[in-house]
Amino acid sequence: MPDTAPASPLRTALAQAAAEIDTALELLLPPAEGPEAPLLAAMRYAAIGGGKRLRGFLVLEGARQFGVSRQAALRVAAAIEMLHAYSLVHDDLPAMDDDDLRRGKPTLHRAFDEATAIIAGDALQAQAFAVLADEDTHADPAVRVELVRCLARAAGARGMCGGQMLDMLAEAATEPLDEAHVGRLQLLKTGRLIEFSAEAGAVLGKAPAPQRHALAAYGRDIGAAFQIADDLLDATASADETGKRTGKDAAAGKATLLGILGLERARMQAERLVEQAVGHLDSFGDRAALLRGLATYTIERKS
């Protein structure tokens, strides 16, 4: 049966943000003519349409706490979503997870080809930094440099890429990872980018250090909760519900907190992280109502 329940303020805000981010991506990744057209088409296929836009929403809501212009926040949100799309394209490749389905449609290397997928991912990553470095994102070059620095750190060897490497090494390991090592793997692979997404609005708004640190801590905790929820969905939901292949973590022998803690303890851990995340928002008052709702959404979502 279709969902006829009235949309909550959070669901409405998420839908609006997703539409605005897609519009920004349309402008920042325009179709091309000539020999490069297939590359732009592949980049647009990977980045535009579908997805929860959780990272972009975090940017927009963080920026709203400090009165940052919507246009500036949308450019940063789109840049982070480009980088996230690149990571998914590469994660789905045969050399990595070898997935056929992403966001309810064929993965990029299936829709195009493997070489195009690699190049499109590389180009999306480059374009993300180009957007952050552009004067249209912020008039202050120091802010632009800080955005570039923080995103590079979140995405690089001590962030997302490092986490992906640890994930690959864990699959080949003869002994299973313990809880601390799995937590670090997931912090790097998933958490760092979500943490920066929550912090980016404070960077744009030149926020005081305590408030910037509070948003970063909030992002770090919901990032950890988000990953546990993803593991739970992989174990319990269907591909139709999630828009991607499920059951793959167990089949591949991947290291997850779910595998170590079991279903109930993993759910309890996610709930504790959400409660902790919400506590970081005390200084923002009612302005942070949507961020508080988002924390709960991260573990209640069905996809």
TrEMBL record:
Highest rank taxon of the organism: Bacteria
Matching Gene3D superfamilies: Farnesyl Diphosphate Synthase
Keyword Magnesium: yes
Name under which the protein is recorded: Polyprenyl synthetase family protein
The entry's keywords: Isoprene biosynthesis, Magnesium, Metal-binding, Transferase
PROSITE patterns attached to this UniProt entry: POLYPRENYL_SYNTHASE_1, POLYPRENYL_SYNTHASE_2
Protein family (similarity comment): Belongs to the FPP/GGPP synthase family.
UniProt xrefs under InterPro entries: Isoprenoid_synthase_dom_sf, Polyprenyl_synt, Polyprenyl_synt_CS, Prenyl_diphosphate_synthase
Cofactor: Mg(2+)
Pfam entry (one): polyprenyl_synt
Transmembrane segments: none
